[in-house]
Amino acid sequence: MARNLVNLEGVFKAFDIRPLLDDVSLGISEGDRIGIVGRNGSGKSTLLRVIAGIEPPDAGRVTRTNDIRVGLLSQVDVADPSATVGEVVLGDKEKHEWAREPGIREVFDGLFGGHSDEFFDRKFSALSGGERRRVGLAKLLISNVDLLLLDEPTNHLDVEGVAWLSRYLNQRKELAVAVITHDRWFLDAVTDRTWEVVDGKVEEYDGGYSAYVLSKAERSRQASVLEGRRNMLIRKELAWLRRGPPARTSKPKFRVDAANELIAFEPPPRDGTELLRFARNRLGNTVYELHHARIGAGEKELLDDVYWNVGPGDRIGIVGINGAGKTTLLRTLVGENKLTAGKLVKGVTVKPAFLTQHLAELNPKWRVLEAVEDVANRVELGNGKELSASQLCERLGFDRESQWTPVGDLSGGEKRRLQLTRLLMDSPNVLLLDEPTNDFDIETLTELEDLLDSYSGTILVISHDRYFLERVCDRFVGLLGDGQLRDLPRGVDQYLEQREEMIAQMNENESPKKEISNAASQRQLKKDLVRLERQLEKISEKISSLLLAQEAAAFDPVRLAQIDGELEVVRAGQAQLEEEWLTTTLALGN
Question: Taking the model in full, what pTM does it have?
Answer without folding.
Answer: 0.69
